[in-house]
Input
Amino acid sequence: MELVVFILASVMVIAGALGVILRPNPVHAAMSLVLTLFGVAVHFVALEAHFLAAVQVIVYAGAIVVLFLFVIMLLGVDESIDLSIEPIPIQRPLAAIMGLGLVGLLGAAIVRAEDALVINPGAGIDVASETGNNDANIQQLARNLYGDHVFAFQLTSVLLIVAVAGTVLLTRKWPRDAKSETESSDA
Output
């Protein structure tokens, strides 16, 4: 039975991932992403990680995909944008400088944190189960997440910004695409 669940969930994940890549309509691609995220949630349930499955469905399939859909709808996928006209001429050089600065800061943080990186899997679970006090567990979790792993949270925010920027680029109608659509509708 576990093998059947694994195979079905894996098919869901692969089919959804292919749908994200191959579907030309951005809204349909976002719906394929939901299928992928639900497949990953099924894998979490099969591994008896029910909390992670719930977080996967609520946060990612719910909030993040809704954010993507909001950006897609906000941009208006039916309008053509002429990228040869720069609204702010200095925008691209500033973006390049900011990107290089971000890569530099990220590299410096990784080099500095490399010595402090100690991986001790399961240590927090033992501490949490010993106390039995839920308030102490929450405080321990907060210290662990926002103290030791605050860099991971910052990296996640950068990842979400990159995902939104990618969504913006994927949903733009390029002038050559708009011309080919009008030519095909005229024929």
